[in-house]
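Bug #77: duplicate submission created two jobs. Keeping one. Sequence:
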Amino acid sequence: MLDIEFDKNPVWSKQKIREIAERLGLKEAQVYKWNWDRSQTVRKRFQKSLKKISNAKTTINRKVNQSAFPEVVPLEGDFSES
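Kept job's structure:
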């Protein structure tokens, strides 16, 4: 029940918390705490995903830059025009 309500809308008003608590026979504080904890878990997972994406983009950019601009090796000899 809590999961279903959270999936519908993760931001709960005081009235919503009161309604859920009454339906489940829980204290409002318990329902509030469950919602808080779940919100924090979702936020942390989202931030972790963003960090993975950012790291992947950095890795890709490095590989693209390395392949687009290969290391220049100086040639030996005098190639000046005379």
